[in-house]
Task: inverse folding
């Protein structure tokens, strides 16, 4: 299983940004990808509710919501109120490794990465830079982040940095410049690799390239590239976001055909491809693709003769994000900003993992340990749930 972290998402409003002439509206990371049967915008100008009907036109099965909180394993709780009051940080831990919690302190002209030792209750600086750090994540003994320089007339220069936690050695994995309104890369991780998408843009075209970095060999390999022609009529494919897991890479893309645009969610192995709009979050296991939207968590089977499963949030405006698969059929997600939920897709049930709180962070999951933090007023607590010894 993997661990990753989105840029902190606590706002329920929609964020709009422009990339290579394409405008994306979302809240806020090899076989050839098939590109046939491109539909017109009218065919996809529908709510994501359409995704709750499977390929056999069967209505999705609504998961049974249970009221009693579920316990997944032994939980250790740490009070971080005094620590976080001294720093301008978001409440969510960016990465957890053994007894260390990594988080960011973002000042106007300085970004600092801290680690908090839960055993020693000791806080120390890991890395400081004058550049911005828009996101950070990790896998195994490696901490990874993106650094961006101040924007210039030509674009924004960026670099992908790596810290080996056990040796404190910092290296640079990749560098580039985001031009023509493209965005810097977002890192995602699995248990064996790191991946990101670079976008080389000119006035005529944007080339999006998926790259992977092997933790074992230290080698960077381009997996696949996609070209969007950005002349008078756009034509080709543009990648917005990706998610990586031990089961493969999933892409959220725009397919342009003679200027007409269709949003598509697809896996690189060809196991899944559907026209979808309105996504907030998504993640993949070996047997399900989970979609987070306003009002719903949708679980669509991959390679299974099963119906789509659906969980309806407390309101149609409540967002679903922070999706983390614990296994092929067990998944954690955040409902709004107030509560973590646990879905058992095999049992077709959903149960609360936390109480309804003032603010709950996006959960992290790595090597059998689930991590999240809760803020109520001025009190912030950090929670580690050990799932290794449990029968969740």
Result:
């Amino acid at each position: 299983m993997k661990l990753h972290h989105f840029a902190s998402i606590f706002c329920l409003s929609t964020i709009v940004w422009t990339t290579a002439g394409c405008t994306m509206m979302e809240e806020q990371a090899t076989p050839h990808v098939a590109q046939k049967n491109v539909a017109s915008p009218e065919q996809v100008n529908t709510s994501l509710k359409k995704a709750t009907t499977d390929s056999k036109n069967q209505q999705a099965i609504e998961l049974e919501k249970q009221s009693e909180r579920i316990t997944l394993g032994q939980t250790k709780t740490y009070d971080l109120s005094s620590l976080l009051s001294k720093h301008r940080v978001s409440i969510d831990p960016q990465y957890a490794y053994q007894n260390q919690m990594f988080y960011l302190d973002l000042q106007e002209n300085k970004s600092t990465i801290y680690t908090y030792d839960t055993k020693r209750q000791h806080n120390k600086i890991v890395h400081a830079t004058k550049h911005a750090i828009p996101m950070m994540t990790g896998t195994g003994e490696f901490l990874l982040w993106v650094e961006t320089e101040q924007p210039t007339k030509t674009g924004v220069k960026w670099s992908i940095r790596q810290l080996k936690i056990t040796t404190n050695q910092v290296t640079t994995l990749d560098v580039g410049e985001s031009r023509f309104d493209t965005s810097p890369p977002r890192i995602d991780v699995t248990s064996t690799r790191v991946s990101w998408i670079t976008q080389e843009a000119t006035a005529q075209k944007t080339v999006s390239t998926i790259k992977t970095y092997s933790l074992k060999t230290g080698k960077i390999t381009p997996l696949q590239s996609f070209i969007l022609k950005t002349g008078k009529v756009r034509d080709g494919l543009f990648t917005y976001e990706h998610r990586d897991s031990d089961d493969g890479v999933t892409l959220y893309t725009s397919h342009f055909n003679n200027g007409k645009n269709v949003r598509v969610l697809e896996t690189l192995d060809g196991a899944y491809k559907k026209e979808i709009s309105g996504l907030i979050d998504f993640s993949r296991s070996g047997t399900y693709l989970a979609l987070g939207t306003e009002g719903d968590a949708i679980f669509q089977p991959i390679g299974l003769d099963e119906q789509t499963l659906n969980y309806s949030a407390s309101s149609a405006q409540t967002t679903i994000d922070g999706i983390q698969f614990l296994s092929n059929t067990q998944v954690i997600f955040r409902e709004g900003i107030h509560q973590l939920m646990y879905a058992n897709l095999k049992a077709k049930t959903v149960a609360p993992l936390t109480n309804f709180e003032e603010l709950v962070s996006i959960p992290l999951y790595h090597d059998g340990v689930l991590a999240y933090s809760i803020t109520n007023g001025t009190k912030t607590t950090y929670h580690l749930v050990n799932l290794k010894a449990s029968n969740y």
About this structure: The chain has two helices and 33 strands. The CA atoms of residues 99 and 118 lie 5 Å apart.
